[in-house]
Amino acid sequence: MNPLTLGLAIGVGFGVILSLSGLSSPLRILDMLRLRDLSLVKLLLVAIGTGIVGIALLDSGGLAHTSIKTLHVLALVSGGAIFGVGFAVAGYCPGTALAGAAEGRRDAFLVVAGGLAGTAVFAAAYAALAPRLIEPSTYGKPTVFSWLGVPALVVAIPIGALVAWLAWRWRKSELPAEPTHIVRERPAH
Q1: pTM, whole model, 2 decimals?
Q2: pLDDT of 178 higher than 60
């Protein structure tokens, strides 16, 4: 299968999962960020735990080829702060904004446009930002398993088990799927 076709199919599948799970709703995301509705946190924990173990298994079997990015601390902290503020203000991250746009949410289209504009501004300013944000705080390509000198699965399996245990432990504190303290969203036209 063509890699672009495979990527499109995986992206569409991911978007469907985001939509069905409620992760494309900015109101549910904002309730999660306000710690009013932890059901999405539980879903994210399960996804992270499954992903960590799944990627480690695929990588150990030679079926995935992970590429660790170089750690640039100042750039990571700066970008994380910008991302966090945008996430909290808009109620979308890049993936959920695309899922919301596919659902026809007008605000999601604005977030996607803002993300593309921000990417263009960063690309234009990269040469000026690199000496200040990237070069002074570059620390190679560290991973927890490389620091410990063990195979990735030795780290991934306990982390996956921990997040599975947390999700199971929190199952009793499940809140209603539809938050009752907010006004329902109007359908996009």
Answers
A1: 0.71
A2: no
Distances in whole angstroms, Cα of residue 84 to Cα of each of 48, 76, 137: 19, 12, 21
pLDDT of 175: 47
Residues with Cβ within 8 Å of residue 53, at least 6 apart in sequence? 153, 156, 157, 159, 160
Please return the burial class of 56, using the count of CB atoms within 10 Å of its CB with bins 0-12, 13-18 and 19+.
buried
Maximum C-alpha span of the chain: 55
Residue with tokens 């480690």: 56
Render pLDDT for 36-88 as a digit per residue (tens, 0 to 9).
888 788 888 888 888 888 888 888 888 877 788 888 899 889 989 999 999 89
Q: Give the domain ranges of the chain.
A: 14-68+152-183
Q: How many contiguous H segments (helices) and E segments (strands) does the chain have?
A: 8, 0
- Beta-carbon neighbour count of residue 174 at 10 Å? 11
CA-to-CA separations, 118 to 28, 56, 134, in angstroms, rounded: 25, 33, 18
Asked if residues 24 and 99 have their Cβ atoms less than 8 Å apart, the reply is yes
